[in-house]
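hey so i finally got around to running both of the ones u sent me last week. sorry it took forever, my laptop kept dying halfway thru and i had to restart like 3 times lol. anyway pasting them below in the order u listed, first the sequence line then the structure token line for each. didnt double check formatting much so if smth looks off just lmk and ill redo it

first one:
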Amino acid sequence: MANPLTMKLEQFTRFDPEERQRLEQLLSYPTKSYARGRDIVRQGEKVDDIHLVLTGLAARSKTLRSGARQFMALLVPGDLCDVEVFILEGMDHDIVALTDTVCVLIPAKIIEGLLTESTTLTKALWWSTMTDSAVLREWIVDHGSRTSVERIAHLMCEMLIRYRIVGETTDNSIPFLLTQEELADATGMTPVHVNRMIQQLRADGLIDLHGKVLIILDPQGLQKVAKYDSSYLHLVRTERRDSEVCGRAGDLVTASARGMLHDAAEKVKSMFGAAQG
């Protein structure tokens, strides 16, 4: 199978064959399966391995003493769940499997080594960590400033792009195994209100649900409802319309004029250099 971590990180930069091989080697470590609803990492736990989601879906979760639960992010294939464990004494939140999920258990010292090198891979891993933080900031805006229908639409737009980036879908259909209770935990609404918003989006002809598959019938229309701007995902190469990667989600991601001009300038320099040679 394709390495979802490579597919995610190459949104930031190109890798040479040796760097790709190093990323492939991360998949050689043991895997562990987690049933739906099981904790992958518990709050307060100090772990020796970093969990890379290989298949399935997980969430960053906090549970209050009252039993109320809040998700802070969803984790799809290619996401590192707990890259901060070699710095922190223990996790400050839970990682819970929302579907049957398989993770690769990468020794923390291996990732720590990569993060302390001065290499393209190091920068790519830092990019991934900073993008995770950007997603959290966007979710905070969701809960504080977006309307209920915008929140649901925004989440669907985000998940479609993220699934496309790692090759989990090639069209506008994505696995959608979340219950209304879990959607409520992700969006800060009640399950009843979540259901109303989903029905509104269906009635408007923007989405459809078939079993556990979400079909986004009108991606641009859904983005308009959500007032969606993908720039927080920092999909550098897709924004630049780099032909190697932009075919996955370029139709959903706003092109960056600065990035496209940068790439055009680099191509001219390359052509000029070749002519001089």
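and the second one:
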Amino acid sequence: MKKIILICVFIFLAFVSFYLISNKRNEDLSAADAKRIECEVLKVKKLIDTSSRYNKNVAFFIDMKIPSGKNRFFVYDLKTNKVIDKGLVAHGSGSETGVKGKLRFSNVPNSLSTSLGRYSIGNKYVGKFGKAYRLYGLDTTNSNAFKRDIVFHYYYDVPYKEKDGYICNSYGCPMVNKKYFERISKIIDSSESDILMSIYY
């Protein structure tokens, strides 16, 4: 009997810990950041409802309003409406304007810019940056993603932890730290349906 009570107490404490950690992850967002991601979540859920091919449990969100030195790649649990993981992500060098905090975006080939919009994460492959995932743009703002070779990949120069200022740039791809990529990769590889990624500003 004592053993059963101890097991129940352990399960209860584990549940409470998970709940508090999940809440903390959402609380870390400023009111403006939280409002933006909530708006994007609604758009992604609406798209998911149009097709059974999309994952209904998890989606990725990248907030380009947040400086690149801060966590702005969010793994979002669509069932509990919680951010369950987050990390740094680089944007395209062509998105730089020379004005601090202001970015530009483009869907034009060779622009080296990040494209805003919703993406479907496709097949993995091994390229010049190692393991990567093809991205398919689902909006007019990112319709050239596949043609532009915009993929999700890692790069060693992307820091793992937050830092003051800005991090390195990509050629337009969402590019993360290898350690963080490995966590995200497990989610993608274990999914039987296509996961959506939304890049917004």
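quick thing i noticed on the 2nd:
Residues 2-25 have pLDDT under 50 and may be disordered.
anyway thats it, ttyl
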